[in-house]
Write a structure and sequence with these properties.
The protein is mainly β. It is about 10% helix and about 30% strand. It has three helices and 18 strands. The chain has a ten-stranded antiparallel β-sheet with strand order 2-3-4-7-17-9-10-11-12-16, with helices on one face. Strands 1, 5, 6, 8, 13, 14, 15 and 18 form an eight-stranded antiparallel β-sheet that branches.
Length: about 300
């Protein structure tokens, strides 16, 4: 526990001390003002390669959990990129806390992510390459044939999160018994979530060994969500009927809970590293978190700007 406390303290010290940086050349100019956090895995915090500098405006350093500097691999996803982050399950047969994942967590909230406090919109964008077995074996059960029902990609934690619950999430989860690429969000802490699930087979969307640019956008006022693959919108459907986000009636506009997110999670749940869940054996690169919903044309242009 003392080690975890020191890691969290290092993340905050690195993040809060970092000045807001200008947007990287790979970022579309129209998105730059709303680019709250951006990780290209080319910029370790000086003196600590287990922390990644934020090239967005929040200065929130990201912890490379369990693998540290070894998680940085020479496999850039896009033009100008040299390095990505390797995420993976380490010991599928053992319940433990050794999966390679990334993120940060604070039970009191992360002040540098305050732009998501009461946010009206959000977006998550980034490159993903599947590199092994997904979904991973569930290391929390003794049955070797039991697989997780989700594959963790990237999310913003809610203000009351235990390391799993989210405000906005890009992930693969089970929908009506089939794994689907989804945008999932919870407008209110402790409230119900809504899921927008892509219709296409996830294995066609994310074939092993191929870099793919994904994006998920969220509008907490209108209830609209969208998914994109390589700059193009994906057909899909909303999973939960009715009004799970409680949008009907006053006050307007509808926004997320007025709480600071408890952190970010990448490649699996529980970035505080007190348990394992939904490991992703994959690589990620150019990961972006925006405090507004990127428009379809912007997603297309962002992909075009980065594509090799």
């Amino acid at each position: 526990m003392r080690l975890l406390t020191l890691v969290v303290a290092a993340v905050f010290a690195a993040g809060l001390a970092a000045p807001a940086s200008s947007a990287a050349p790979s970022v579309l100019l129209a998105l730059a003002p709303n680019l709250l956090a951006h990780y290209d895995f080319e910029h370790p915090v000086p003196g600590n390669a287990a922390l990644e500098q934020d090239r967005g405006r929040s200065g929130t350093a990201l912890s490379l959990v369990n693998g540290g500097a070894d998680m940085r691999v020479r496999d850039g996803a896009y033009r100008g990129s040299r390095t990505s982050v390797q995420l993976k399950q380490v010991n599928p047969a053992t319940a433990g806390n050794d999966d390679w994942k990334a993120g940060l967590y604070s039970a009191s909230g992360v002040p540098s992510l305050r732009a998501f406090n009461g946010a009206r919109e959000a977006s998550i964008l980034g490159w993903v390459k599947m590199t092994g077995q997904n979904p991973a074996p569930n290391s929390n059960t003794p049955d070797p044939d039991d697989l997780y029902d989700a594959i963790g990609l990237a999310g913003v934690l809610s203000g009351d999160s235990n390391g799993h619950a989210v405000r906005a999430l890009l992930e693969l989860i089970s929908v009506d018994g089939s794994l689907k690429l989804v945008a999932l969000a919870r407008r209110l802490d402790g409230g119900a979530s809504q899921t927008f699930a892509a219709s296409a087979d996830w294995r066609e969307l994310l074939p092993v060994g191929e870099w793919v640019f994904l994006a998920a956008t969220f509008d907490f006022d209108t209830g609209e969500m969208a998914l994109y693959r390589n700059g193009k919108p994906l057909a899909g459907r909303y999973v939960t009927a009715g009004d799970p986000w409680r949008l009907e009636g006053e006050p307007e506009p509808d926004v997320a809970s007025a709480t600071d997110p408890r952190g970010l999670k990448v490649g699996g749940s529980y970035p505080q590293n007190d348990r394992e869940g939904n490991a992703c054996t994959c690589r990620m690169d150019g990961l972006m978190f925006l405090d507004r919903a990127a428009r379809p044309g912007e997603v297309a242009l962002q992909h075009r700007r980065m594509a090799r």
